[in-house]
Amino acid sequence: MDSAPRIKDLPDSERPRERLAANGTLKKSELIAILLRTGTKGASALAIGETLVKKFGTLGSLARASVDDLRQVKGIGRDKAVTLVAAFRLASEMAKELRSDSPTLDNPEAIADLLREENHSYQVEHLQVVLLNTRRKLIRVEQISQGLLDTLLIHPREVFKAAISAGASAIVLVHNHPSGDPAPSEADVKTTRDLIRAGQVLKIEVLDHIILGRRTADKGQDYASLRELGYFYS
């Protein structure tokens, strides 16, 4: 594994920390090496970083790894594993804080941008409801439920309880597909239409239902909008 040089053996101008301080562009493995600080058990931090990138494939997969998962990689002990988990948890918390700017959320892409990183870390389906005011500004995001790998149970009472409590005039439903394919299932479509009808009774508009997945080589968009797909009644 240790084909990469040790950081201390590199010239100052090529060391990841120095390049980052100079606003240089770093590879994922180099950013991971900075978090690890030093190698161990004969493996350099850069080599460990490269191994992690290769093993997990994406940062989303790496972010979902547990401490025990990470410790299966040669050179990763408990402290280094905890450091990596903490770094990804911190990134998730930062994403939550960014919501406090109350952005205008009037299109599917804006909703996907808001919740993408958080949902990439989930290994089972999670339903969130984005609560909006009359100007389509964010009030807050409410976590409603979570299910098994590809199963999510949703009751209208739980969805609209949060909306009524927040005084929301409209909501957007958001959930993730752990499989990575954002295409809606028949159950997704049926549930969405049930919630649309419930919202009409309560005078709370269901604007859209966004399903988050992952980009692939042949599909550049990592989300699906049920409204854009024509599943909302006119």
Summarize the structure.
By secondary structure, the protein is α+β, with helices and mostly antiparallel strands. It has helices spanning 16-21, 28-36, 45-56, 59-64, 67-70, 78-98, 108-120, 156-166, 186-202; strands at residues 126-132, 138-146, 170-176, 205-212, 223-225.
Structure overview:
The protein is α+β, with helices and mostly antiparallel strands. The chain folds into two domains: 7-95, Orthogonal Bundle (DNA polymerase, domain 1); 102-225, Cytidine Deaminase, domain 2, CATH 3.40.140. The protein contains nine helices and five strands; from the N terminus they run αααααααββαβαββ. The protein has helices at residues 16-21, 28-36, 45-56, 59-64, 67-70, 78-98, 108-120, 156-166, 186-202, and strands at 126-132, 138-146, 170-176, 205-212, 223-225. It has a five-stranded mixed β-sheet, sandwiched between helices. β1 (126-132) and β2 (138-146) form a beta hairpin. α2 packs across α3 and α6 (78-98) runs antiparallel to α7. The longest helix is centred in the middle third of the chain and has 21 residues, at 78-98. The chain starts with 15 loop residues before the first helix and ends in a 9-residue tail after the last strand.
What is the rounded Rg? 21 Å
Structural class: alpha+beta
Report the sheet-strand fraction. Answer: 5-15%
The SSE string, one letter per element, is HHHHHHHEEHEHEE
Q: What is the spatial order of strands in the main beta sheet?
A: 2-1-3-4-5
Helix content: 40-55%
How many beta-strand elements?
A: 5
CATH topology of the largest domain: Cytidine Deaminase, domain 2
Number of domains: 2
Contiguous low-pLDDT stretches (5 residues minimum) are none
Mean pLDDT: 84
- The CATH class designation of the largest domain is Alpha Beta
Structure annotation, total helices: 9
